[in-house]
Amino acid sequence: MDVLINVFVGLHIIGIAALLGGFFSQMKAMGEGTASFGKGMLHGALTMLVTGVALVGLNQADDAEVNNVKIGIKLALLVVILGLVYVKRDEEKISPPLFGAVGLLTVANIFIAVLWT
Question: Is the pLDDT of residue 86 over 90?
């Protein structure tokens, strides 16, 4: 079971990297007001959702303690991120505050995962 959990943790990190990497690659365009949500950002957010749900299930099946409040907050942030990216994915220009909010929520999600023990 540990190997399977570690595989999903790796996939979860790849999803985070896709979402945050897409944000960082558009930061210059965000300053110019021409940023857009790429397909990689959408797929990264979806990967995070699927692997995160799988990780909760696998940890509960392994009788590991799961902090449901932490997971609930992370899920809420991810749903907001996913909603914004999905709804605005076809627009050529995203307003800088909205684009920045996705980056900020992604970083907040990472810090919650790492620092909340």
Answer: yes
Quick one: average pLDDT of 82-94?
94
Tell me the residue type at 51. Answer: T
Residue found under tokens 């995070």: 48
The helices-and-strands tally (H runs, E runs) of the chain is 5, 0
Structure tokens that stand for 71 in this block: 């997971």
Report the sign of the C-alpha dihedral through residues 73, 79, 57, 51, in that order.
negative
Rounded to whole angstroms, how far apart are CA atoms 40 and 18? 6
For residue 38 the two structure tokens come to 């790429």
User: Do the beta carbons of residue 88 and residue 37 sit within 8 Å?
Assistant: yes
Instruction: Produce one character per residue of 97-117: b if its CB has 16 or more CB atoms within 10 Å, e if not.
Output: eebeebbebbeebeeeeeeee
pTM of the model: 0.92
